């Protein structure tokens, strides 16, 4: 079952959650270095990663799915968070420039429906950044963290899902090479784990971080050709000739 908002907030308040937030935030920021003037929405449980963009983006909103619950965000000032149905976003068509999905795709009963709704709300050339648990990683195999919940994805699976929902993947990175064990020694060596894993391109990172753009002209669905039986002409040249030969065609009396 998907974690609720209380469980997610509790995880990010713990030392292991703080480390995860640090490294995932670094990877997100590396992909989106400048969002000045953009309209941004975070979907799922994005609040640990949205704060850095608030002073740059034109507007920043946090949408949390109904099955998870919602929390007040930010802690000061007017709330920018709302409870929504992920498959029916309260946004006009092409009204958002960037969407950040965290703790969403792997938790969704129908991730394709959610991504098609994101496609609808994104402007032409808009960008999606999805943080998804890695199927081959250690974090997906231990259910004591949010990254161990739901359905993890391999790289080929997430690429296929994005293309199926009219997105073009344009960038890829990974994070969380540290084992998801909340022990002091491991947490203190987290930087070394991350540096070695990234430099060697090891396959067991905890999360995929994939960036994709909206295809403005999505491909039309292919329809199977319908085979029709060949019909012989009723009054074709051959048929007329045969009737003359048998005397069935006579001249009008003149």
From TrEMBL:
GO terms for molecular function: S-adenosylmethionine-dependent methyltransferase activity. The keyword Transcription regulation does not apply. It comes from the Bacteria. SUPFAM superfamilies: S-adenosyl-L-methionine-dependent methyltransferases. It comes from Blastochloris sulfoviridis. Residues 85-129 form the Methyltransferase type domain. One of its GO terms (biological process) is methylation. The keyword Membrane does not apply. This is Class I SAM-dependent methyltransferase. The lineage of its organism: Bacteria, Pseudomonadati, Pseudomonadota, Alphaproteobacteria, Hyphomicrobiales. Keywords: Methyltransferase, Transferase.
